[in-house]
Structure formats: structure tokens, C-alpha cells
């Protein structure tokens, strides 16, 4: 069953149009990857949540003012499916991230492989894995935020919805906001179905203006869940201190 899931995942990863993704990200700071995971893979990942041995820590959002609901960070070694997603998505996203660096006039570049980037993180003391599972019940939500965990921050991350809207839960929309200089914030909702992924900017992204590129600040969150239970997989590429 795992081999079948991996084969299906590899097929979907090979079908990604990276030029189209770069264009979507340039236009709005987010890009959709429809049906990245199948229903069985989604259910299998969500079923890991009660198994504490798979995780390094649990965060109850209300205790920290993050919102309502909870999430768990995976421990190393990551589940095979999660590790495969992280390592296979990274190279294409690194190419986009490096184009952003050049557009913003930043000399630093991201390595071509996830292993090399994580080696850079670990050398700086960022040793803790950051992929996570989030669980929301009725009334839960996630405040607008940015996932910044240390000196080395990869500028893109991925969220995969593991539950099916309208069947498993209602409400709970994935929300992005963009703050441009001297302008009101712009809000966008990613229309996710089960297995869909959204790639989005972690912190800042470049926008081409009349006088060159400038930075806009991005934040993301989840609106209030009205009914049911919502699970999400988060793929963050930098590790944490």
C-alpha cells in the first residue's frame, strides 16, 4: 500500500508545471497543487495524529495566543511520505526562491538539494524538524502568522489539506494576507479540497513595481471551523532552533 502511494505521489510530482507555479507565486504569493495526495494517503497521515511516538512536540494554540486548536511537529526520521514530499518539492521551489533572491538584490542563494540546505540549518543550530500535523475542531482557528524559526529561513512552504470540506468539516478556510507598502492588506482564500496543496510565501516576496522590485509581507492562517474536524499537513523546509 505504501509503495502504491509513493508511486502515485511520484507521478503527481513529475506533473508539476514549475513555470506555472512560479507565475502563480509572482501574481499573488501562492500557488495551487490540485490532488497532490490521494484520499488514502490523506487519511493515513491524519491517522498518525494520536501516535505521540511520531512527533517531537505538541502545541496547544490557545496557550500561546496562536488561536484555538493544536498541532504536532514530527520527529526525525520523518514518515516516508512526508520526507519524500519535503525532499522532492524542495529543488523546484529552490529555483523559484533563488529567482526571488536575485530579484530583490540579495546575493545569498539556496542549495540545489534539501540535504545541503538542512546541513546549513544544522550548522547554525537549527536542528529540530518542522514538518507538522495540525488538528482543528469546532470553533478552532489559526491566527495570521509567519513560520520563522531561526537565522536560515526558506521563503516558501506548503500546506496539504487532509480532510474533505463539506464532509469532514465546514468553515476552516486557508487564508493569506499580503501587506504592500502604504496600502491596505489584501486577503485571499485558497479553495482547497482533500489532497490539494497550496505553496505560499513564508514571510516576504518580491513584487515588480514601476521603479523596480519591492518586498511585500505575507501572513497565513485558518478561519474558524464551524463543524467537524480538519487535519492539515504542513511542510516547512528550514529546521528550527
TrEMBL record:
Task: Give one Pfam family.
Answer: Oxygenase-NA
Keyword Ribonucleoprotein, does the record have it? Answer: no
Q: Which residues form the Fe2OG dioxygenase domain?
A: 127-240
Metal-binding as UniProt keyword? yes
Which keywords, in A-to-Z order, does the entry hold? Iron, Metal-binding, Oxidoreductase
Instruction: List the GO molecular function terms.
Output: metal ion binding; oxidoreductase activity
InterPro entries membership: DUF2086, Oxoglu/Fe-dep_dioxygenase_dom
Family to which the UniProt record says this protein belongs:
Belongs to the iron/ascorbate-dependent oxidoreductase family.
What is this protein identified as? Answer: Proline hydroxylase
Amino acid at each position: 500500500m505504501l509503495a502504491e502511494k509513493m508511486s502515485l505521489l511520484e507521478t503527481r510530482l513529475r506533473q508539476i508545471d514549475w513555470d506555472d507555479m512560479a507565475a502563480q507565486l509572482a501574481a499573488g504569493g501562492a500557488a495551487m497543487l490540485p490532488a497532490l495526495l490521494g484520499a488514502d494517503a490523506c487519511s493515513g497521515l491524519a491517522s498518525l495524529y494520536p501516535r505521540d511516538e511520531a512527533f517531537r512536540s505538541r502545541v496547544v494554540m490557545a496557550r500561546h495566543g496562536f488561536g484555538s486548536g493544536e498541532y504536532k511537529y514530527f520527529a526525525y526520521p520523518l514518515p516516508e511520505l512526508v520526507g519524500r514530499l519535503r525532499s522532492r518539492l524542495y529543488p523546484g521551489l529552490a529555483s523559484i526562491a533563488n529567482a526571488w533572491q536575485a530579484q530583490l538584490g540579495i546575493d545569498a542563494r539556496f542549495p540545489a538539494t534539501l540535504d545541503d540546505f538542512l546541513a546549513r540549518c544544522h550548522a547554525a543550530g537549527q536542528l529540530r524538524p518542522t514538518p507538522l500535523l495540525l488538528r482543528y475542531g469546532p470553533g478552532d482557528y489559526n491566527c495570521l502568522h509567519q513560520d520563522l524559526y531561526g537565522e536560515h529561513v526558506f521563503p516558501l512552504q506548503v500546506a496539504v489539506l487532509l480532510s474533505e470540506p463539506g464532509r469532514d468539516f465546514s468553515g476552516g478556510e486557508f487564508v493569506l494576507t499580503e501587506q504592500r507598502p502604504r496600502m491596505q492588506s489584501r486577503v485571499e482564500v485558497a479553495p482547497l479540497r482533500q489532497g490539494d496543496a497550496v505553496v505560499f510565501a513564508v514571510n516576504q516576496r518580491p513584487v515588480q513595481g514601476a521603479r523596480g522590485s519591492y518586498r511585500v509581507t505575507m501572513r497565513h492562517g485558518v478561519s474558524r471551523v464551524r463543524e467537524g474536524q480538519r487535519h492539515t499537513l504542513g511542510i516547512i523546509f528550514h529546521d528550527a532552533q
